[in-house]
Each structure stands twice: as structure tokens, then as C-alpha cells.
């Protein structure tokens, strides 16, 4: 027998589209109040409106997660309006692709700033109160690209490998505080980040969809608090 997550509070980063949007809405269906972070406020407002139709409180806090001050401001706003954060979904991220020499140093750096520092900044802002309460769940979205390098993906690979190391270390640190830290490593999910506007590739039967990941995360959060899945890989069954 697992646990109920109804009436808990979650912060979801990158909640304006793709996996983050689906996860926010899946949590709302479960009765979880939401703090929504991304840069584009209009998209967050749309998600908040849809989430509110499930009867939960949804507060938006626009921020660039690469910017520590913006993150601290946003998280404070969410804490003030929603109270203690039970669940943090570190989902926001960018895909930066190009061969090693083609990518400009600024593009390479941006992958690290958003994907690695962004995850670090948000976690740093939320963690103290989880430690104080001696409870909490953190899900960090890495990628299959965090486990295996591919040509043309050095910046994205480096950022996602870094998330693995950071998450594993954090997990070892805060288990004793009853905080569960999960790493997810999805392969291709049909979102803007993976496929852009290529609608041929948005084949629902073939590729994983953002809502599949969202359901999976809710399932993990409902596990009995005495256990967690520290690392998992999500694959499409037959993407051929
Ligand atoms: N799709 C895949 O195949 C796949 C596979 C493995 C892992 N992932 C990972 O899953 C996560 C979500 O990806 P997705 O496919 O759902 O992407 P997506 O549809 O492009 O959504 C990304 C979200 O992150 C937000 N975001 C981007 N940069 C940000 C920043 N600097 N500060 C705050 N928010 C930011 C975006 O909103 P704004 O632009 O408005 O800020 C958007 O809400 C990423 O970490 C990605 O690496 C994706």
C-alpha cells in the first residue's frame, strides 16, 4: 500500500510545455497544489488555469532557472502563497545540439547554465525547508543522454551527465532526512525539445508522450515513503 499525494504541494519547473506541463496537470488531477516555474508567463497562466479546473491551487512564478536571484525570488513567492513544498520536479531544460567545434562557447555554456546550474539553483532554494520538515520528494529529469554520449551532443550530454552526479550525491546526503531523490532518464519523448515542429514524428502510438512520463512520475510519488526508485530509464516499446 503506497501513499496518497492529495493536498500535497509541488513545484514543477518547465511547467509551460512538454513534460513539465503534462506533469503539472497530472498532479492537479491527483489534487496536488502547484507552483509553476518557467520563463514564459503566458504559458504558465494557461497551465495554471487548466490545473485550477481540477480544484487545486496553482500559482505561477516566472523565472529563468539559470539566474539564482530570479529563482530565489520565485521560490519565496511560491512558499509564501502555497506553504511547504512536498514535491520538487526539476524538469526545465534545453536541448543544445551541434558538433563540438560548431557550437559557439556561449551556446555550450548555456546548456550547462540552464540544465545543471538551473537544477542546482531551484534545489538549493527548496531543500532547506524539506530538511527542516524531515520529508520531501525531488525528481530530477536527466535523460538517456545523461548515460550515453552521441555525436553532435557534447553540450547536452555534459549537462545531463552532470545532473546524474549531482543527483546521486544529493540523494546520498538527504536520505537520512527522509527526502527521496529520483533520477529519470527518458529516451525520446514527443515534445518541442525533441522533435520541434516535425508532426510526422509526433506519432502517439510510436513515441513516448509527455503524459506517459507524467503518469510514471505520479506512480513513483505514490510509492510507500520507505522506498524509492533512485534511477530509472524510460524507453518507447517500438519506435521503429
Ligand atoms: N523530449 C525528450 O525527448 C526528452 C528526453 C529526455 C529528457 N528530456 C528532458 O525533459 C525536460 C523537459 O523537456 P521537454 O521535452 O518537455 O521540453 P520542452 O517542451 O521544450 O519544455 C521545456 C520547458 O522548460 C522551460 N525552460 C527552458 N529553459 C528555461 C529556463 N532557462 N528557465 C526556466 N524554464 C526554462 C520551458 O519554458 P520557457 O521557454 O518559457 O522558459 C518549457 O516550459 C528537459 O530537461 C529535457 O532535457 C526530454
Question: How would you describe this structure to a colleague?
Answer:
- The protein has 240 residues and is α/β, with parallel strands linked by helices.
- The chain has one domain: Rossmann fold (3-Layer(aba) Sandwich), CATH 3.40.50.720.
- It is 44% helix and 15% strand.
- The chain has 7 helices and 7 strands.
- Strands 3-2-1-4-5-6-7 form a 7-stranded parallel sheet, sandwiched between helices.
- The mean pLDDT is 96.
- It binds NADP nicotinamide-adenine-dinucleotide phosphate (NAP).
Topology:
Elements: E1 9-13, H1 18-29, E2 33-37, H2 41-52, E3 58-60, H3 68-82, E4 87-90, H4 105-133, E5 136-141, H5 154-174, E6 179-186, H6 192-195, H7 210-221, E7 231-234
Parallel strand pairs: 1-2, 1-4, 2-3, 4-5, 5-6, 6-7
Helix pairs in contact: 1-2, 1-7, 3-4, 4-5
Bound molecules: NADP nicotinamide-adenine-dinucleotide phosphate.
Rg computed from alpha carbons, rounded to a whole number of angstroms: 17 Å
The helix/strand order is EHEHEHEHEHEHHE
How many discrete structural domains? Answer: 1
Strand order of the largest sheet: 3-2-1-4-5-6-7
| Strand-pairing-aware structural class | alpha/beta
The percent range for helix content is 40-55%
CATH class: Alpha Beta
Bound molecules: NADP nicotinamide-adenine-dinucleotide phosphate
The CATH topology name reads: Rossmann fold
Q: What's the pLDDT, averaged over the residues? A: 96
Poorly predicted ranges: none
Q: Report the principal-axis shape.
A: globular
* Count, helices: 7
Short key terms for the protein model shown above:
single chain, 240 residues, alpha/beta, Rossmann fold, seven-stranded parallel β-sheet, 7 helices, globular, binds NADP nicotinamide-adenine-dinucleotide phosphate
